[in-house]
Design goal:
Layout: H1 5-8, H2 11-20, H3 24-53, H4 55-61, H5 66-92, H6 97-115, H7 121-135, H8 139-147, H9 152-162, H10 165-184, H11 188-208, H12 230-239, H13 241-272, H14 276-302, H15 310-333, H16 337-353, H17 355-364, H18 371-405, H19 408-420, H20 423-433, H21 437-445
Helix pairs in contact: 3-6, 3-9, 3-10, 3-11, 5-7, 5-18, 6-7, 6-8, 6-11, 8-18, 9-14, 9-17, 10-11, 10-14, 13-14, 13-16, 13-17, 13-18, 13-19, 13-20, 14-16, 15-16, 15-19, 15-20, 18-19
């Protein structure tokens, strides 16, 4: 059936119609790309979570304080992730994203495996820097590729499916890694086991995924040659007040949710005497099932016609984070392992379900020539919060209070209680972001 001429006068609507009549082979190709890139995301998250799983054994072997282990495992990754993330994203906005992603995947996987061979603080830190350099080339090219495989009204759902890699990766880095540590009686074995598959996946990306035409769903004739500088991207993001608040909300969620999860397994080991495998299995199971259920439920909600409006997505995220902040406080307030576990079942879904909708909100307010850079800037902010502020702030508070409290368990408990309340802050930014959606949407379409 031929679409009416009036509809074809709108380039965005015409692009949407084009995807609706796409042949089944193209539709299968789209979801194959989402599936493979979701596995990339899973290994990215797994390579981070394995550090949280073995945080306590590393701290004890290298004789570190809580602040010291924060520097070693979080800051060393984040500083170099930040340094190379923007240049890599600029390259991704101008050249072949698939090749960048493949090379980055193989690099960080190889570096993860090498972590298992390190024998000292400085060796571990240097290799961890290599992991950060590789991971900087992961998510920005991936999300930019997906944005050019799906029109804007389908991106939220596609990116939510992509985000299933997050709970899968957390399960791999917690449960599987914990079992590996107990089986081989060495924290180093977990890095070797999780690093190797990424090299194979990097080769698979290079051989089976095609680079899509940039901006194909934004205009009838995508301006693939148009390139945005970092300065132009930063100025655009500053003018787009909705993007500013969306990015702020996502950053604070990373500080709140991922920051809490970074220390939770260590806390469970100290507070309840669990082994590495026991803590990993308990938390990893919640990551897997609660994370996947929340992500799938979010995908189903976002597929509803009523959720095609960005403001409804923002209100949905605000409500979820607000309602999850109280149980996040109770995890560390209680002295009951059963209550803490029950509260984790309530909080972990909120930590995962925001990822796909957050990415979609950002990408829908960014021109195609700025998507990888915009996503890299967003990830830069998130990683500063998650890998620098949370590890150092929690570690410093814990070390400061451990003397007066005569317990590094109680000191860590109070540090995590303080961090848990930042969830309310993220809620404010999501609710505020909707005020300028209409005007900012027009600026993107102009």
């Amino acid at each position: 059936m031929t679409p009416p001429a009036a509809t074809l006068s709108d380039p965005v609507a015409a692009a949407a119609i084009a995807v609706d009549v796409a042949p089944p082979r193209l539709e299968r190709a789209r979801w194959y790309v989402v599936s493979v890139l979701g596995l990339v995301y899973a290994l990215n998250i797994a390579d981070r979570y394995v550090v949280s799983t073995v945080l306590e054994p590393i701290r004890l072997e290298f004789h570190l304080s809580d602040t010291g282990v924060g520097w070693l495992t979080g800051v060393s990754l984040a500083l170099f992730y930040i340094m190379v993330g923007i240049p890599i994203s600029q390259l991704a906005d101008r050249s072949n994203r698939r090749n960048i992603l493949s090379a980055a995947m193989m690099l960080w996987s190889l570096m993860t495996a090498l972590l298992g061979l390190t024998q000292s603080f400085w060796q571990f830190m240097l290799v961890r820097i290599g992991v950060g350099v590789g991971e900087a080339g992961g998510t920005p090219p991936s999300t930019s590729i997906i944005a050019d495989y799906f029109p804007r009204e389908r991106r939220a759902f596609a990116l939510t499916v992509f985000a299933l890699g997050s709970p899968l990766g957390a399960w791999l880095g917690s449960n599987v890694a914990g079992q590996v540590v107990d089986h081989f009686h060495s924290w180093r074995a977990a890095f070797l086991v999780l690093g190797a598959p990424g090299v194979v996946l990097g080769i698979l990306i290079l051989l089976t995924i095609r680079e899509p035409r940039r901006g194909r769903f934004e205009t009838l004739a995508p301006a693939a040659d148009r390139q945005a500088s970092l300065g132009e991207t930063l100025r655009f993001l500053w003018r787009q007040r909705s993007v500013w608040h969306i990015n702020a909300a996502g950053t604070i969620i990373c500080l709140w949710g991922w920051g809490l999860m970074y220390w939770t397994q260590t806390y469970l080991q100290r507070a309840y005497g669990l082994s590495t495998a026991e803590a990993g299995a308990r938390v990893g199971t919640i990551y897997l099932w609660a994370g996947i259920a929340a992500t799938l439920a979010t995908g189903a909600i976002l597929a509803l016609p009523a959720m095609r409006q960005p403001r409804r997505i923002a209100y949905f995220l605000a409500a979820v984070v607000f309602c999850s902040t109280v149980p996040s406080f109770l995890i560390y307030w209680t002295h009951s392992l059963g209550v803490a576990t029950a509260m984790l079942w309530l909080v972990v879904p909120a930590v995962y379900l925001y990822t796909g909708p957050q990415m979609a909100l950002l990408l829908n307010f960014l021109p195609s020539s700025m998507r990888a850079q915009g996503m890299a800037i967003s990830l830069l902010c998130a990683n500063v919060a998650n890998l620098i502020v949370a590890p150092l702030a929690v570690g410093w508070i814990s070390d400061t209070l451990s003397g007066p409290l005569h317990s590094n368990t109680e000191s860590l408990r109070y540090a995590l209680l303080a961090l848990s309340l930042t969830g309310f802050w993220a809620t404010y930014h999501y609710a505020t972001s909707v005020r300028t959606y209409e005007a900012d949407d027009l600026a993107v379409r102009a």
